[in-house]
Specification:
Elements lengths: L4 H13 L5 H24 L9 H22 L4 H13 L6 E7 L2 E16 L2 E14 L2 E10 L6 E11 L4 E16 L2 E20 L2 E15 L2 E16 L13 E8 L4 E7 L5 E8 L2 E9 H5 L4
Antiparallel strand pairs: 1-2, 2-3, 3-4, 4-5, 5-6, 6-7, 7-8, 8-9, 9-10, 10-11, 11-12, 12-13
Length: 312
């Protein structure tokens, strides 16, 4: 079973540097989120609201941006996005794992991939992955991975991503994944056609804090910009107002559950809208609320699989 690379790479340091949290701490977080969930239920009873100036077209646009940006942001936050794909594949090459087809060479800290399949993987579900084919360069320096026109192709769908930028790692009382700027030029399916989309992650930070042998807290902040996406251009700020708590398997160290505690806010800067995601304690579902100028225009309950776009 493939583990999340970023989590696996940091695990040894986490066990040494991060104190184990008590069950009371976890219970406190669950209690906080239960209270948050209660507030969301009260909002549901109020029904959907719209501002006086918001047209139905504008409302639909806001909801589309909320849905698409939410899926991307949550995948990254839960170690199932492109950052995890990049770091896992690079780490495999650093460990001299072999491509199932294609090749790579390592010269003076630079790894050059040529149609290498089997090292880079994309998430299709919780601990479910499929292979991608990689071509391009990665420079490895002191725990930093710098990607230079690294192309990741999905041979089944025909989609691809070309990545430029640096992922940095920082150690301390917790472990951190840091990105000043990472640009991803993607060719994506849009119905029966393909579109070219540019994504940029800026001032991005993902913090890993192991609370016990079976619990991990994940906190994300940063900005995501999309140009020419299927729902148009958008820019969102990302903030975990409460960390997402997930279970980890004590034997193989893989993340073994969807979040059961935690709150994330995704602020749509173009439309002055805020989407709030609150994890339910059942480890299967979440509460969502979309507000414009403090007025709620949509809310409800969805499964994590549905929001992340994973198959059931």
């Amino acid at each position: 079973m493939k583990k999340s690379l970023i989590y696996t790479a940091f695990l040894g340091a986490l066990l040494v540097m991060t104190g184990c949290g008590s069950s009371d701490e976890s219970s406190e977080n669950n209690s906080q989120n239960s209270n948050t969930g209660g507030n969301s239920s009260e909002q549901n009873n109020e029904g959907n609201q719209t501002t006086d100036t918001l047209t139905e077209t504008q409302r639909q646009k806001i909801l589309e941006v909320s849905e698409e940006s939410g899926a991307i942001v949550l995948k990254e936050s839960l170690l199932g996005g492109v950052i995890d794909t990049l770091v896992f594949g690079t780490d495999e090459a650093e460990a001299d794992e072999k491509c199932s087809s294609g090749s790579y060479v390592k010269t003076a800290g630079v790894i050059t991939f040529t149609n290498c399949e089997g090292l880079f993987k994309t998430a299709t579900g919780l601990n479910q992955y499929k292979d991608l084919t990689a071509s391009g360069k990665v420079t490895v320096t002191d725990g930093n991975f710098t990607y230079q026109d690294l192309i990741l192709r999905d041979s089944d769908s025909g989609e691809s991503k070309t990545v430029n930028g640096t992922v940095k790692f920082s150690s301390g009382s917790t472990e951190q994944d840091l990105i000043d700027s990472l640009e991803i030029k993607a060719t994506e399916k849009n119905g029966s056609a393909f579109i070219d989309v540019t994504y940029k992650l800026e001032n991005y930070k993902l913090i890993y804090d192991q609370k016990s042998g079976s619990e991990l807290a994940l906190t994300t902040t940063g900005t995501l910009t999309a140009t020419n996406s299927s729902v148009g251009d958008y820019k969102v700020n990302i903030t975990n107002t409460q960390p997402f708590f997930v279970q980890i398997d004590a034997d193989d160290e893989a993340i073994s559950s969807y979040p059961y505690s935690g709150v994330m806010q995704i602020e749509d800067l173009n439309n002055q809208a805020v989407t709030t995601i609150t994890a339910n304690t059942d480890k299967k579902t979440l509460l969502y609320s979309v507000k414009v100028s403090e007025k709620e225009i949509a809310n409800g309950t969805k499964t994590w699989q549905e929001v992340l776009g994973f198959s059931q």
